[in-house]
Amino acid sequence: MTFALNRRTFITLAGAAALLPASAFALSSDQARQLVDALVAEINATIASGKSESAMIQDFAGIFDRYADVPIIARTAMGVDWRRASADQQKRFTEAFKGYAARKYGGRFREFVGGRIEVRDVVTVPNGVEVRAMAILPGQAPFEVSFVISDGSGSPRFINLFIEGVNMITSERTEIGAMLDRQRGDIDAMIADLQKAS
Amino acid sequence: MKPVFVSLPVLLALGACSVAPEGQSIHDPYEQTNRQIHEFNVGLDRALLRPASQAANTLPDGVTQTVTNFADNVALPGLIANGILQGDVKGASTNTFRFVINSTVGFYGLFDVADIIGLYEEDTDFGETLAVWGVPEGAYVELPVLGPSTERDAVGEIVDMLYDPLGNWVTDEQLAYGTAANVADKIITRGAFGNSVDSVLYDSADGYAQARLLYLENRRYDLGQEQSDAYIDPYADPYFDPYEDQ
């Protein structure tokens, strides 16, 4: 079923990786892989912690903050409208986006109890280094989860992720665009919607 | 069964495939109609599929897994045929071994023994066969009941439904069991991914656009196609918007 794959999308967001020392040089494959290994370990630990859903969502928000370049993901999701937003709107939007992403993706992680993510391959891509992993969940065929790592922010962070080809950035860009359309382009109203969305 | 009947509509439909303009990742000239069909499909989900899937979720795992195994197994001859048509020797062989093992040791496919020994299904369909043969993707379409598709995949789905190689070996009545298992499997899958499907259909600001994007990205990934917009560098130009007006 087509819709079914979307769930895999949620796994992805789970990822946020460990902070690594910033390098003046281009990001190496090893650095990217270390980041994803640490990220996966934190996700797995959270899933296995047995905490309540709301506590897990808090944990995932923290992981997202530490491993992902949240400002650049938020900005990219907003697209051209970012340019006409005021500095204050940009700041509030980024904060709202962080909470939204943690609720939307983190809230579903409990479904992955008993599963694991295994890194398989590291390749250089036009916008950074892509770490490809397989998610292995009980009773399901394994599927690919991949993280794009960049040090464009000054330290290695993940800037996008794919689950079986489904791209978080394009998906959230579509979603934020639809929220803006629904509010006839009113950025403040869209931010208010985003604060409630999951 | 009767490939002659299939070929005429196939040719007509393929001739009508519309080709996306260069560099456009979403080609949706029938959007207005598609959105109406989407509304219909969401209504159908709300009234039937969603409640049925919630009921399926209450069944013991052993029951649903057995139904899924059986449905997967009866689908294998179709997968094998498509693998052969694509010249995919490895995929067709893997699926053939799966079919032999699960139909015998797995007791008519009720148990998935092949999975246990690491022989995973190589999923494919006639839409992929058409892609391998060079037929263009065509426009995005949302089909009633069946959901998101493209012109090429819609033709594939029709061909796969009309022509099931399993029909050469079993009676029509036995074939009907396979079809029933297939429908039940769809309901079970809808239940297993319940929250995620709900998120797209009911929580999203534009469920139609989300479903369209998810389908196209996942389908192109499955077919091994390059996605030009997959690796945009957000630091190079964070304001660049290749998806404007979606």
What is the compact description of this entry?
By secondary structure, chain A is of the alpha+beta class. Chain A contains 8 helices and 5 strands; from the N terminus they run ααααααβββββαα.
Low-pLDDT stretches of chain B are: 1-6, 241-246
User: Quick one: how many beta strands of chain B?
Assistant: 2
Helix content class of chain A: 40-55%
Low-pLDDT residue spans of chain A: 1-25
Distance between the termini of chain A: 23 Å
Structural domain tally of chain A? 1
CATH architecture of chain A: Roll
Pfam families (chain A): MlaC (PF05494)
InterPro entries (chain A): MlaC/ttg2D (IPR008869), TAT_signal (IPR006311), Tgt2/MlaC_sf (IPR042245)
Protein name (chain A): ABC transporter substrate-binding protein
Signal peptide (chain A): 1-26
Question: What would your notes on this structure say?
Answer:
- The complex is a heterodimer of chains A (198) and B (246).
- Chain A has 198 residues and is of the alpha+beta class.
- Chain A contains eight helices and five strands.
- In chain A, strand 2 and strand 3 form a beta hairpin.
- Chain B has 246 residues and is mainly alpha-helical.
- In chain B, strands 1-2 form a two-stranded antiparallel sheet.
- In chain B, helix 2 (31-57) crosses helix 8 (172-192), helix 3 crosses helix 8 (172-192) and helix 6 crosses helix 7 (151-162).
- Chain B is globular.
- Residues 1-6 and 241-246 of chain B have low confidence and may be disordered.
- Chains A and B meet through helix 1, helix 4, strand 5 and helix 7 of A and helix 8, helix 9 and helix 10 of B.
- Chain A: Residues 1-26 form the signal peptide.
Output the keywords:
heterodimer; A: 198 residues; alpha+beta; Nuclear Transport Factor 2, Chain: A; five-stranded antiparallel sheet; 8 helices; globular; disordered N terminus; B: 246 residues; mainly alpha; two-stranded antiparallel sheet; 10 helices; 2 strands; 61% helix; disordered C terminus; ABC transporter substrate-binding protein (chain A); TAT_signal (chain A); MlaC/ttg2D (chain A)
